[in-house]
Specification:
The protein has 397 residues and is of the alpha+beta class. It is built from 11 helices and 12 strands. The strands form 2 sheets. The chain has an 8-stranded mixed beta sheet with strand order 1-12-9-8-2-7-4-3, covered by helices on one side. It has a 4-stranded mixed beta sheet with strand order 5-6-10-11, with no helix packed on it. The protein is globular, with a radius of gyration of 24 Å.
Length: 397
């Protein structure tokens, strides 16, 4: 069956909502963000989970292809999707700015759509969408292995269409993962400015292992706590802790494990490996679970990611001979007492969200086409108290 775009054309009427955010420092699991009672309202419903990929037109591509329950088809764009953006504003109090839009993607190009129906429940969470996302990518991956990556060049949309009890598309949910909360009071102090100025002397004209380590670290930090980021951080750690590739090693050095190399590097940087939690051995086990076991959500994924990120930052600074900087754990403010206590109080006591909503103009309005190009076209700000979790869903209500 050819792909049919079932995204609702318009947002339903606005209702009071309670939104939730996803700071990195919070240990809670993901929650559904929407109006109070949204999750319960989904009980017994079903939806259609979708991934849209930019692709190249493939002559002879089947009109109806199903792999492991995932329907895959090609069509011409555009396709409508829902997209929520979250940005943290600077300041002493934690303020998040959110925007939800219905947009068209893939204008004029060939797209590959992968979709399947899913039962919904009151326990819907970001982890469900992550699991469905993994299922789609597994199906696309095996298809690409048989053909090639022209089937799916890059992903441009992910959403979940929610149907009412009559089977009509009612609303949509999109996935906002790993929204990170930073201390709003961080600033560059005198010592930091001196350290940053020292970076002017850095020579990047030659290929050095720690240059590659910096790139892998950056990739992981921007990715957030995912299986891919853990692997990236381990690549960075090996580049920072082991002798350069091709170095002739002694017999004793050849017997050293990755764990020992990293622990020795930490000792040189002034950190006792016994103080690292989870310890380096367990962090190596985390990598093994991902790389050799194929587990994408290990039990210590998040704690392990933040510890790996911390020791990577430490070893990068040590390689640069810089011993000052912002806190190794990014969620800790860098102010000194008593301002640090004040900043942390404001951060956790007065966290809020400013919701910026984009209303679509009425059909037939002479301003419709112009307003579609001016996003957001109408803004309504609502200050709402928030609680934290690491991943969240955004429902178009």
């Amino acid at each position: 069956m050819a792909f049919h775009d079932r995204m609702p054309e318009r947002f339903p009427p606005r209702k009071p909502r309670q939104h939730e955010i996803t700071p990195s420092a919070m240990p809670d699991g993901p929650r559904l963000a929407g109006e109070r009672g949204t999750a319960e309202a989904l009980e017994g419903r079903y939806g259609e989970y979708r991934n849209i990929f930019r692709a190249m037109s493939i002559p002879g591509f089947p009109d109806s292809l199903e792999i492991g329950g995932v329907r895959i088809s090609q069509m011409r764009g555009p396709v409508r999707t829902q997209r929520t953006e979250i940005r943290q504003d600077p300041g002493w109090r934690t303020v998040y700015e959110k925007t939800m839009r219905r947009v068209e993607v893939g204008h004029g190009g060939t797209l590959t759509a992968a979709a399947f129906e899913v039962p919904l429940s009151g326990q819907l969470s970001s982890q469900d969408l992550e699991r469905w996302h993994a299922k789609v990518h597994a199906a696309i991956g095996v298809l690409v292995a048989i053909l090639d990556e022209r089937v799916a060049l890059d992903e441009i949309a992910e959403d979940l269409i929610v149907f009412d009890v009559y089977g009509k598309a009612e609303t949509a949910v999109d996935h906002v993962t790993n929204v990170r909360e930073y201390p709003p009071a961080n600033r560059i102090l005198g010592d930091h400015r001196t350290a940053v100025e020292e970076l002017r002397k850095l020579d990047l004209s030659t290929a050095e292992p720690f240059h590659a380590a910096a790139r892998w670290y950056l990739r992981a930090a921007q990715e957030g706590p995912t299986a891919e980021a853990v692997v990236s951080l381990w690549i960075a750690l090996e580049a920072l802790s082991k002798p350069p590739y091709g170095t002739k090693l002694t017999r004793e050095e050849k017997r050293l494990t990755d764990v020992i190399w990293v622990e020795r590097a930490l000792e040189k940087a002034g950190l006792d490996p016994a103080e690292v939690r989870p310890d380096v051995g367990r962090l190596a086990g985390l990598r093994a679970e991902i790389v050799h076991g194929g587990i994408e959500q290990p039990a210590i994924l998040r704690d392990g990611f933040y510890t790996l990120e911390m020791i990577s930052r430490l070893l990068l600074r040590h390689r640069l001979s810089i011993d000052v900087g912002w806190q190794l754990y990014p969620e800790v403010p860098n102010l000194r007492a008593p301002l640090r206590g004040i900043a942390m109080y404001l951060q956790h006591r007065f966290r809020r969200t400013e919701w910026i909503e984009t209303r679509e103009p009425a059909e037939g309005s002479p301003r419709t086409e112009r307003l579609k190009q001016d996003a957001p076209n109408l803004r309504a700000r609502t200050k709402e108290a928030n609680r934290g979790s690491r991943g969240s869903l955004r429902r178009g209500l």
